[in-house]
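User: Please predict the structure of the protein below. I'd like the answer in structure-token form so I can feed it into my own downstream comparison script.

Assistant: Understood. Taking the following sequence of 505 residues as input:
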Amino acid sequence: MAHYQIATPAIFDMMHYQHITVGRIIMHELVWVQKDYNNIGSYVPIDQLRKLVEATMDVIQKNPKLIKDIHKKTINYNKDYFNYAKSILKINLSQLSNSQLSEIYKKLIWHQKITHGYALPTTWFFDSDGEDFSKFLINKIKKIIKKQKSKQNSSEVFSLLTTPEKNSMAANEEIESLKILQKINNNKEAKKIFLQSNIKKIENDLKKIDVKLKRKIKKHYKKWHWYPFTYIGPAYELNYYLKIWSGLLRQNINIDKNLEKIENQSKNIKLQKKRIIKELKIDYATICLFNIASEIIYLKSYRKDCLFHGMYVLDKILREIALRFNFSLKQVRFMADWEVAPALKKGDFSGDALNERIKFSVYYQKGEKGIIYTGAKAKRFLSKLNIEKIKIKKADKLKGTCACSGKVSGVVKIVNLPEEMEKMNQDDVMVAHTTFPSLVPAMKKAIAIVTDDGGITCHAAIVAREMKKPCIIGTKIATKVLKDGDLVEVDAERGVVKILKKNKT
């Protein structure tokens, strides 16, 4: 689910910031195909992508210090982005002139571009085609294990050494959420209210609980409700958190034990890494490469969280623009970022042109110049491209890359959209093209996670490690070959999904 307020800045920064990492612009073309809110295809010339991947791999090995410096700057850019977006929430946008609104918009988009693009070769491209870095690291571990004649499992070692030591925003939210649950559990009146299954009644009864506790509940909601927004929302309502706390309370979970586990996760990862590095006598240069990998995984997760927060705030600006132009929010979302400031200055824009983009459009970026085609022109442009198509063959097993080790069996549920999550039962195998924060409730239920999308920096890989769930990424065709009800074995240690029984209904 996407639109041009995410596409046009993101694709520009893909072209603009490559030189920060590899010293030059290697990939200079991208085609984005849009139908309604669906990005139905994104294409780059394979020779350009391969050259960028190879150049990035070369820099990582020859100049790891440069990579670490880039990542450090990117973290700081994202902190600034988050804080600037947060400051906009305090502004009454309706009282601003078009010129003032334009300046706020431009500054927010600048933050969006630099935070997304500054480290893009390492946090996206280099592991997006063939998962070069993942395979490179796995092969290194296999050689080390063989040399040391160790009985360690290469997938488990790879998974551990590439796991970030810092808590993600998701982990921090869960810690804060469990602390509130502790207070609810220790407050007799609050516990009685939250043990009810009727969420509306819980919401109505909040007025009966301790004022300080009620304030903490609402503060938590205000602080985190943007988290699942992605590109079009919605954000969480207060009743989402009430439902979570009520459900956990009624399940009678051990709150203290769960909280202790998450709070000690970072410390335990450090200790496990130290032990395995000592046992396998891993050299300093290899440790540096694995540190970069775990750094990339943390950074991509952090960057994406900051982007989703920024998109939540941007949406408020777009709503104000929509009111001034007498447009729908959807129409404004289909303006390119370079069109917004001139439109605000002029006080006008073509609604018909936006409607055509919503129906079907193609965005072509070459270098730093972008153009959007609609209707017959879009179809003509696409017809001239030589687009590689993945051939789907019948098979009884699929191959991918281990993101988190383990071996389990379960029933397949294809979940690509939040509205498909309700079909997930506890211990089903969740299969998706890719995952994002809105799908986390389904991921929590899953016994294993399988995706078409690949790379150790993808969202599924990051979340699976936090949840300690077997995960195979980069199968490319899992959502095409598998269907709801299929029984599969997920052997993440070997990166294999084996079909045990097809659902014939």
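That's the full token string. The longest helix spans residues 284-325.
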